[in-house]
Amino acid sequence: MSNQAKQQSLSTDSLEEFERVAVEFAHLAGAEITMALGGMLAVRYKGASETGQVWRDPVSEVDHRVEHLVRDRVASAFPDHSVIGEEVDEKNADIGDFVWVLDPIDGTVNFVNGFPLFASSIGLLHKGRPVVGALWCSTGHALRAGVYHAREGGILRFDGSTVALKQNPDVRRRLAGVPRSLATSGVWDTRRTGSAAIECAFVAAGLLEAARFDKPNIWDIAGGIVLVQAGGGRILTRRGGGWSPFERFEGTDLRRWMQPLLIGRADETMMVEGLGRDGDS
User: How far apart are CA 202 and CA 118, in angstroms?
Assistant: First the structure.
């Protein structure tokens, strides 16, 4: 390990504590979301009006409630840590070494329509590197809601139990998550879930073999990257006309980070050939 890597490493005790707290935050978010299910939600659309605007990018009252709840908990537990969230844009706020990245509900379109594929994502970055992730998911490999979680160098868990990855050898074509239909779908059967966080969790747990995100926001995938790595997966990002391993979020303003990603448990060549070529730009 290089001297730089040693300086950036966190102790196992610290990572375990951060993971425990992230799981607590995710369960709180899940409880708020569950309580709201079936109710008449107040929903608005970002930038939309009544004068012919296409109704896209909905935000529910629950999105705001969950983000403020988690922000308050972070401020209380870690007053020197920063927060980036989807719904609160603190444009002039300083970003420190530790940054909690929140997506209160990823898959809000699904949520407000009662389509049961959505998640609440909690991620912790240390100097831009994802080190802890906790995703409350409306469903998963256990066919129930719960929290997938992991820390850097740790194992993938679901509500505290180790996730044992199993694949049926008789299934010849596995699934891949895509943002839109692909012409190059010969490697896998493709699916659109409407939630990048769900797809990260499903790749980590082995329900999806791979997924591609064309223009993810940092809050869409910050919590899921550690899960994918803990599940034995790879993360590739597009730089300079090619795909290379993802290491950390970089940029002068992480709130505006947006970069293509491939994630998967397949080898890198298969991911690029199966999902990356059609996303080239």
Answer: 12
pLDDT tens readout for residues 184-217: 557 899 999 999 999 999 999 999 999 999 999 9
Which residue's structure tokens are 């990855």?
165
Instruction: Name the residue with higher pLDDT: 133 or 65.
Output: 133
Residue entry with tokens 């990823």: 106
The 10 Å Cβ neighbour count of residue 254 is 18
Q: How many CB atoms lie within 10 A of CB 192?
A: 12
Query: pLDDT at position 240, please?
Result: 82
- CB-based contact 190:182 (threshold 8 Å): yes
For the four alpha carbons of 187, 191, 197 and 198, in that order, the dihedral sign comes to negative
The Cα 23–Cα 174 span in angstroms is 29
The token pair at 79 is 């007053």
CA distances from 276 to 98, 154, 244, 246, 272 (A): 31, 28, 11, 14, 4
55-89 in b/e form (b: 16+ CB < 10 A) is eeebbbebbbbbbebbbeebeeebeebbbbbbbee
Q: Which amino acid is at 208?
A: L
Q: 2 pLDDT exceeds 50?
A: no
Residue listed under structure tokens 């309580």: 35
For 129, phi then psi, to 5°, come to -95, 125
What gap in Å lies between CA 153 and CA 184, rounded to an integer?
A: 34
Q: What is the pLDDT of residues 230-252, one digit of tens each?
A: 999 999 999 888 999 999 999 98
